[in-house]
Amino acid sequence: MGAQGLQFDTNRIELSAGAPSTIHFENNDPGIQHNIAIFTDSSLGTNLFRGEIVTGPAAVDYRIPPLEPGTYYFHCDVHPTMSGSVVVKAAGGGGPPPTATPATGGGGGGGGGTANPSTVTAQGLAFSTTEIALPPDAPSTIHFENKDAGVSHDIAIYTDSSLGTNLFRGQIITGPASIDYSIPPLKPGTYYFHCDVHPTMDGSVTVG
């Protein structure tokens, strides 16, 4: 499927139940970011798959984990008005209502981590800090507050600004909203972070 002119070329994706599948996604909007994220329904309560955000023109093959038969919801995290339905069919067709639980995702949320998490705020298309300090060799937490109403942001951590290796990718949230990101243990060093939706929002992560 493709994206062009800030819209998908289809509002219906059909997948087979009980087995991994692939969606070949082509972003044909030059300089604009899109992805595909699948949820149980339009409330966005449970994310089942979150595809890598790609800047057009570009193409990517999304590997979708096995899903139970049913009808789900998909959208672009960057442009949530781009949306549609994912119909997962059993071999014989049909199937019960969706009962799938989260199979994969782009990043953390939930508890765990340190007792006193680092806090980062996004407002006015800028982070409140360009430096995040985390403890070495132990799980940690970043409390992220997105205060930009109607705008999507996240925090993603890489080894460096070349973006060659992603160490953590947080769930994209649309403001106003907040989330606790559970960061996996990192070795001492200096890393790079940015917002995947707005890469000019960036800074360094010091672990040590």
Provide tags for this entry.
Immunoglobulin-like; globular; mainly beta; 208 residues; single chain; five-stranded mixed beta sheet; 0% helix; 44% strand; 2 domains; 20 strands
Compose a concise summary of this entry.
By secondary structure, the protein is mainly beta. It has strands at 2-3, 12-16, 21-27, 33-34, 37-39, 47-50, 54-55, 58-64, 70-75, 83-89, 118-122, 131-134, 140-146, 152-153, 156-158, 166-169, 173-174, 177-183, 189-194, 202-207.
Protein architecture, described:
With 208 residues, this protein is mostly beta strands. It has 2 domains: 2-89, Cupredoxins -  blue copper proteins (Immunoglobulin-like), CATH 2.60.40; 118-207, Cupredoxins -  blue copper proteins (Immunoglobulin-like, Sandwich), CATH 2.60.40. The protein has no helices and 20 strands. The strands form 6 sheets. The protein has a 5-stranded mixed beta sheet with strand order 2-10-9-5-6, with no helix packed on it. A 5-stranded mixed beta sheet has the order 12-20-19-15-16, with no helix packed on it.
